[in-house]
């Protein structure tokens, strides 16, 4: 079932994101600056900072999975101030996603109505493909961009890593 | 079938991207600078410029659709130098995607092998969810980021626009 499949893809992307944060940490060590200086960076003064990009990516993945499985997601407090804290946030999110099984998504059909805000409902396919997947990658890519533009040596394979092709 | 569905989502996102380029054009007019100055901007000197972000977003959408439908995508030359050219590139891509019908994707199953490089094959689901969807949103988000960080008044709804929820 593709709901399960797409949630598994969030896990892969979040692990890639963690590896990107690891590269940022190594870059800070090599250049001898505090890696936590990245946490407050923004693309523009009225845009959310790096910490929020990570939190929203995690919460989008977690909330999507929980909503499509018809369960309540665990609450994770927004209290991270360091890169290590943010990696902990990603780890908690991945650990939760890994508790879910294909069977948890079997009752959900493409037109099952999902309550995604207290006053909004949306069919499952529209929820996943039109809102949640784009939103998830928006925040992961923005986090990547913030590090990339400040000199962390990243390439697109850091973002895409883990897709499995087979030699022809 | 979700292959058709996800290709339709690429159309929606490309139309949002075109509206974002329109906002950049209006911003340039209001501030009296040449909107084409955005075309060569980069997040970092060794990263691809804005024009390439748009081309790759388009080619990812077009190539994904064609590969999943088992047809050959039309070739679009990489010769854009202006914002108007880039909007033309998006329009050509959308026009092609709109020729495809749900029936074109019916023969493709989750494990159908897709040739995505001359020497690489990958099962359809892995191709779509692990490579092409993340890659598409990576480039759309990077284009958004390049404009956003240079003062174009954008918000996330410019990126997500068109997802249809229903009042509860």
Describe the model:
The first copy, chain A, is mainly α and 168 residues long. In chain A, 57% of the residues lie in helices and 7% in strands. Chain A has five helices and three strands. The longest helix of chain A has 30 residues, at 2-31. The radius of gyration of chain A is 17 Å and the shape is globular. The first copy, chain A, starts with a helix and ends with a strand. The model of chain A has no long low-confidence stretch (mean pLDDT 95). The interface between A and B is large, with 46 and 47 residues. Strand 2 (120-123) of chain A pairs antiparallel with strand 3 of chain B, so a sheet runs across the interface.
Question: What attributes characterize this protein structure?
Answer:
homodimer, 168 residues, mainly alpha, two-stranded antiparallel sheet, 3 strands
Chain pair forming the biggest interface = A-B, 46 and 47 residues
Name the shape of chain A in a single word.
globular
Q: Average pLDDT value of chain A?
A: 95
Portion of residues in beta strands of chain A equals 5-15%
| Terminal Cα span of chain A | 26 Å
Largest sheet of chain A: 2 strands, antiparallel
Side by side, the strands of the main sheet of chain A go 1-2
- Helix share of residues of chain A? 55-70%
Poorly predicted regions of chain A? none
Radius of gyration of chain A, taken over Cα atoms and rounded to an integer in Å: 17 Å
Regarding quaternary structure, what we see is homodimer
């Amino acid at each position: 079932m593709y709901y399960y499949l797409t949630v598994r893809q969030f896990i892969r992307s979040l692990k890639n994101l963690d590896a990107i944060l690891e590269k940022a940490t190594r870059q800070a060590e090599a250049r001898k600056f505090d890696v936590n200086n990245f946490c407050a960076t923004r693309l523009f003064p009225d845009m959310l900072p790096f910490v929020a990009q990570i939190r929203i990516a995690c919460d989008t993945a977690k909330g999507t999975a929980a909503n499509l499985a018809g369960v309540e997601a665990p609450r994770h407090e927004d209290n991270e101030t360091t890169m290590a804290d943010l990696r902990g946030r990603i780890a908690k999110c991945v650990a939760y996603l890994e508790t879910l099984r294909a069977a948890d998504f079997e009752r959900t059909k493409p037109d099952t109505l999902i309550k995604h805000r207290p006053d909004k409902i949306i069919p499952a396919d529209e929820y996943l493909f039109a809102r949640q997947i784009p939103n998830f990658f928006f925040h992961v890519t923005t986090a990547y961009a913030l590090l990339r533009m400040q000199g962390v040596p990243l390439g697109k394979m850091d973002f895409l890593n883990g897709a499995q092709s087979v030699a022809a």
